[in-house]
Structure formats: structure tokens, C-alpha cells
Design brief:
Layout: H1 3-14, E1 19-28, E2 38-41, E3 47-50, H2 55-71, E4 75-80, E5 85-86, E6 90-91, E7 95-103, E8 108-113, H3 116-127, E9 131-135, E10 149-151, E11 166-171, H4 177-186, E12 191-194, H5 198-210, H6 215-219, E13 221-222, H7 234-250, E14 273-276
Parallel strand pairs: 4-14, 8-9, 8-11, 9-10, 11-12, 12-13
Antiparallel strand pairs: 1-2, 1-7, 2-3, 4-7, 5-6
Helix pairs in contact: 3-7, 4-5
């Protein structure tokens, strides 16, 4: 990768802008790109810099890069150009294996509240790669050294924009938790959790129903929050919540990992997509 490409990648990352890097990792037969060729693709599918083959190969890479950015997962694709027609119909005759990796800003974990659970959530969330924001009048830097932002005066709930990439955990100890839940749901947050007893959670969810929020919105709230780990201590409760966040973000489950992979690989690696062009 040329220094210009490194520089561009660093510039985009420093601005918190999502993008994808495509790298040719294997070539069979005839191809205009070579192993190690790279390109940067923005979240609109535009190739900003680099080269992974022209024409239909580039089009396929740009399309797959959009999927990588949207799903937040890398993909390994095979672009089969044996059917590509050039001029009067000569096939290109080659194929390329291309690894596409999304480079994304940290997802935001908004912790509403203070106390030992909230403090441990900040520690674990930071370790899991979240950008930490804490909103509570009693929050201070000594209690939340991992927080990139502390909001201590937000009485009308206007200081914190919430969007579809936000993870919101409400641990207010029953202080305005219903208002924060309503705000998070209206902002279509990716994850909304309420740390409360089952009795309190039912009261708050019933309030939301009474306020006219759709049932499908209310059903998306994790209340009580976290996986069923049998957690007792504040640290264990925070662990159960962060574990749930990671499972949802990565498309995982709480099932045990299989002892061995099913089936045998057809090659040293399997591609996520085989694209026959053009």
C-alpha cells in the first residue's frame, strides 16, 4: 500500500468517517490487479484511492464494500472474470480473491446514571471498543476516567443525540428512567437496556405504553438488562449487560461454542461471495 493510501486512511479514521479497505489477496489467471493491490471505498460506494482492477471488478468490490460497512463485518470475495467479454467476446480468463475490511468509528455507549454498575459498564465498554459517554449530574472524572464525554447538566435531555448506532444503558436508580427510555426509543438506538428490578421494569414499560409508544418499540427494550448469568454483584451485572451488547452487535448467541467446525473446507479459506462478472 502506497504512503498516499496510508495517509488517506489515517485522515478518514481521525475524522471518525467510516470506510472500507479492499486488498487483493490472490489472483488466478489473467488479471489487471496483482496480489497486494489495495483500494479505499467510502460509505457511498465511491473508490477514493487505490486500484483493485478496473471495470466490473471494481464495481463488484464497491458493492461488497457497502455491505461490509453496513454489517460491520469483513468479507472475502472471489471475483470470477472468466465470463467477462472484451471487445468481440474474448474472456478475461482470471479470478481474484479480495479481502474487504470495514474501518469504522467506535460505537457509542451512552451510560445514563452513576454508581458501581455504571462505573464498571464504562470500564468494560471501553475494553470492548466502545466510545463512552456518561450522562448524570453526579458523574465525575475520577469515577469515569474512561469516558470521552461527561454530561452533568442535561435536565431537559437535549445534550445527548441518540441514533441507530447508539447503545444506551439506563442505570439512573429510578430517576427519570422513563424519560430516557422514551428518548432512546424515539432515537432508534441499536440497543436500549434498563437496569432495574422486574417490578420497576414493568412499571416503566407500562408507562411507555400509556404514553402511546408502539408495542414493537417497547418490545425492543432489554429490561431487566443483561444476559441471565445469575449475576449478583454490580460487577457481574455490568458484565452481563456488556456481554449482551457484544452478542447483539456481533450476531452471536449465548450457546456454547462447537467443539469442531462442521464439514470440511474446500480450500485454505472460504469466500463469503463468488461474483461472476460481468
Amino acid at each position: 500500500m502506497s504512503s498516499d493510501l496510508y495517509t488517506k486512511a489515517a485522515e478518514l479514521a481521525s475524522k471518525g468517517q467510516p470506510f472500507a479497505i479492499a486488498t487483493v489477496v490472490g489472483v488466478v489467471g489473467s488479471s489487471s490487479a496483482r496480489p497486494g493491490s489495495k483500494a479505499i471505498i467510502d460509505p457511498f460506494g465511491k473508490l477514493l484511492l487505490g486500484w483493485v482492477g478496473g471495470g466490473c471488478a471494481e464495481s463488484a468490490v464497491r458493492t461488497e464494500a457497502l455491505m461490509c460497512i453496513e454489517t460491520e463485518r469483513p468479507r472475502l470475495i472471489t471475483v470470477d472474470m472468466s465470463d467477462e467479454l472484451v471487445g468481440v467476446g474474448m474472456p478475461c480468463g482470471g479470478s481474484m480473491d479480495i479481502f474487504i475490511e470495514p474501518v469504522l468509528p467506535k460505537p457509542e455507549l451512552l451510560i445514563v446514571g452513576h454508581g458501581r454498575i455504571a462505573e464498571t459498564l464504562a470500564v468494560l465498554g471501553d475494553l470492548m471498543g466502545f466510545s463512552i459517554t456518561v450522562n448524570d449530574p453526579a458523574a465525575d472524572r475520577n469515577s469515569f476516567p474512561q469516558a470521552e464525554r461527561l454530561v452533568t447538566e442535561d435536565f431537559d435531555l437535549t445534550e445527548m443525540p441518540i441514533g441507530p448506532k447508539s447503545f444506551v444503558v439506563i442505570a439512573t436508580q429510578h430517576k427519570r428512567d422513563h424519560l430516557w427510555l422514551e428518548k432512546a426509543l424515539k432515537g432508534n438506538a441499536a440497543y436500549v437496556a434498563l437496569i432495574a428490578s422486574r417490578h420497576r421494569a414493568k412499571l416503566v414499560l407500562d408507562y411507555l405504553r400509556g404514553s402511546g409508544l408502539p408495542e414493537e418499540k417497547i418490545a425492543s427494550v432489554w429490561a431487566p438488562a443483561g444476559l441471565d448469568l445469575g449475576a449478583c454483584t454490580p460487577e457481574e451485572i455490568a458484565l452481563s449487560v456488556v456481554s449482551q451488547m457484544v452478542a447483539l452487535r456481533r450476531g452471536g448467541s449465548i450457546l456454547p461454542l462447537p467443539l469442531q467446525e462442521e464439514g470440511l473446507p474446500r480450500r485454505d479459506f472460504d469466500t463469503d461471495a463468488i461474483i461472476r462478472q460481468c
